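Anyone up for a design puzzle?
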């Protein structure tokens, strides 16, 4: 079910389907459209001629021919005209109809380009937000692995006002010299120190303390937290951007320790406080630190009570950090 943002050439992705950012004729063009047609060979164009074109915001499917992918899903994104002509709704529809078509054709892995962000002029930061939000919403209800393929990392900048507060928070909390980390923690409180919260329910707090046994494993604590939140396992691993098979492995093996990225993702999915998140991550053998830019960005989102894993990963990608999940 995870969503990965990757830097790659979409024509080389060995997935069930790649998505082509096509034009309404479906007869090829420039950019990723032209690259996909060149890699697939002339048979792709021949099949596209039989489809009768495609409206903006809709999608159609063909075989992949010479591509590593079995299928190509052709979708038409909107041309950017300033944002006042329904561009966002059309772009959301392009992603959503492509995903629905992939599901209908039993595709388990799908790779998307950043639709409309090339010659169609959709601002790249806004295009990325639409992609992440729309794909993320779909994945919360469906089991599929989706790759959002950014061909040229240098073409995507973080100049948006949306990231200005995060950049300022990094500037205030990120420690570039590990030898300064102790002094930084004295200035800011310990790394991932909890922000003030409302008083806890004494009965619930007592239950948590009883469950947080010194010898408790990551798996045991995770399952207890899921129960406390009244969540199902599926709800939790989907919110964590983690695959079902990995969650099953963690649940069935009390001694299994995940990667730090996975442990943090579960802390986010459970909407834990900073202190609770630190405790869960420690059970996996890791610790938060202001010497890690990833940790500081996650801290920013938790302190602002934003637990949307896809938005967090969007910010991590924007600041060139590894993503959360498996």
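Challenge accepted. My sequence:
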């Amino acid at each position: 079910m995870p969503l990965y943002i990757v830097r790659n050439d979409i024509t080389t992705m060995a997935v069930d389907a790649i998505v082509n950012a096509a034009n309404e004729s479906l007869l090829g063009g420039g950019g990723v459209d032209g690259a996909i047609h060149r890699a697939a060979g002339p048979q792709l164009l021949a099949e596209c001629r039989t489809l009768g074109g495609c409206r903006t915001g809709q999608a159609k499917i063909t075989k992949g021919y010479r591509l590593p992918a079995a299928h190509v899903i052709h979708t038409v994104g909107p041309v950017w005209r300033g944002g006042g002509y329904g561009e966002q709704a059309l772009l959301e529809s392009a992603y959503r109809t492509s995903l629905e078509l992939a599901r209908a054709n039993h595709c388990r892995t799908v790779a998307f380009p950043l639709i409309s962000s090339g010659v169609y002029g959709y601002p790249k930061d806004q295009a990325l937000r639409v992609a992440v939000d729309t794909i993320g919403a779909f994945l919360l209800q469906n089991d599929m692995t989706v790759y959002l393929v950014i061909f040229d990392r240098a073409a995507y900048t973080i100049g948006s006002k949306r990231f200005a507060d995060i950049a300022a928070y990094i500037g205030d909390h990120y420690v570039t010299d590990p030898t300064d980390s102790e002094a930084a923690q004295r200035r800011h409180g310990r790394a991932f120190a909890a922000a003030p919260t409302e008083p806890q329910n004494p009965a619930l707090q007592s239950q948590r303390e009883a469950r947080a046994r010194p010898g408790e494993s990551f798996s045991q604590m995770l399952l207890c937290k899921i129960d406390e939140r009244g969540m199902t396992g599926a709800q939790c691993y989907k919110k964590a951007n983690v695959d079902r098979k990995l969650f099953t492995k963690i649940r069935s093996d009390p001694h299994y320790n995940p990667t730090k990225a996975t442990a943090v993702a579960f802390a986010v999915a459970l909407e834990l406080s900073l202190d609770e998140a630190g405790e869960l991550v420690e059970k996996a053998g890791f610790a938060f630190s202001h010497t890690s830019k990833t940790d500081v960005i996650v801290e920013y989102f938790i302190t602002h009570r934003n637990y949307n894993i896809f938005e967090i990963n969007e910010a991590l990608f924007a600041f060139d950090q590894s993503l959360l999940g498996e």
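A detail worth pointing out: The first helix runs from residue 31 to 40.
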